[in-house]
Amino acid sequence: MHILILTGGGLDLPFTRSYLETHTFDQIIAADKGVQYAADLGLNPDVILGDFDSLDENTQKQMQTWNIPIRTFPAEKDYTDTHLAIEEAISIGADEITLFGATGTRLDHTWANVGLLQMAMQRGVRAWIVDKNNRISMWNRERVMQKKEAFGDYISLIPYTEKVTGITLTGFYYPLDHAELTLGISLGISNELVDDVGVISMESGDLIVIESRD
After folding, report:
1. 16-45, pLDDT tens digit by residue?
2. In the 3-class helix/strand/coil scheme, how is 62-130 assigned residue by residue?
3. Cα–Cα nearest to 159, from 131, 200, 196
4. pLDDT tens digits for 151-192?
């Protein structure tokens, strides 16, 4: 089951509309300000959750008309609304999650959301953060990339654990052969696919893959 999560960071509405025209999802979860985004996009979520402290009065009234489950949490809580939305998605059977609104000007939230990709991965769920300029994922096993399906021209590899070892890249402008990426070193930034198919393989560690358009 592929679940779309709309959460409360920055979201480019024209880009999101165009993306949704070519991608389908089994269910939609709107978290906090993501409820406003869902209304702006004309979407009817299957579940909404959060503390709803960022919603105006009209949106709060509208969400009451949707006749769907509402999970309400206090503003003072241990986990972010995005974290709770991912937990909700996994609990209802997601094997793939795409997040919109997970990046923005709040770098603390953006970086925490990148960390949530690891949580999903460790529970056997593929997860993607998508915005107008980037698609972000995390991997601890081989990934095959089709050039025709790449999100952007540039592909950067950033270790999330202290080290990612045994990295081999084929089909890339800058190949690697059993290399090691270390946290804080920029070796994996701004690579490009040159073949129709590229392969990223590794022996250990968790690797952030960022596909960028700009």
Report:
1. 999 999 999 999 999 988 999 998 999 989
2. HHCCCCCCEEECCCCCCCCHHHHHHHHHHHCCCCEEEEECCECCCHHHHHHHHHHHHHHHHCCCEEEEE
3. 200
4. 999 999 999 999 999 999 999 999 999 999 999 999 999 999
Q: Which residues of 140-150 are buried (b: 16+ CB within 10 A; e: fewer)?
A: beeeebeeeeb
The CA distances from residue 160 to 101, 137, 209, in Å, are 21, 11, 10
The DSSP bridge partners found for residue 204 are 165
Beta carbons of 44 and 63 less than 8 angstroms apart: no
Retrieve residue 201's tokens.
């393989």
Q: Indicate whether this model's pTM tops 0.85.
A: yes
